[in-house]
Amino acid sequence: MNPTLNTIDVVVSDMDATIAFYAHLGLEFKLDPNTPEHAGCERGDVRAEHSIAFDSRSSRSLSPLR
Fold first, then answer.
1. Is the dihedral of CA 57, 58, 62, 63 positive or negative?
2. Is 3.40.309.10 the CATH number for 7-59?
3. How many CB atoms lie within 10 A of CB 7?
4. Which of 3, 29, 36, 38 has the fewest beta carbons closer than 10 A?
5. Is the per-residue pLDDT at 2 higher than 80?
6. How far apart, in whole angstroms, are the C-alpha atoms of residue 64 and residue 34?
7. Helix (H), strand (E), coil (C) string for 34-61
């Protein structure tokens, strides 16, 4: 079985600015009500095989790569 890339999770330092930027590109990200440091983009096409999500820097315990 070959691995498949289907999700990209980006760690961001300013969630509000990131959501606003992508809104200008036509993508609507919504904060997860259970974990507000996470936002996802829902698409109308239920057959979508790819997704992108954002996590705030505070949600990660690992130091960023340098």
1. positive
2. no
3. 11
4. 3
5. yes
6. 24
7. CCCCEEEECCCCCCCCCEEEEEEHHHCC
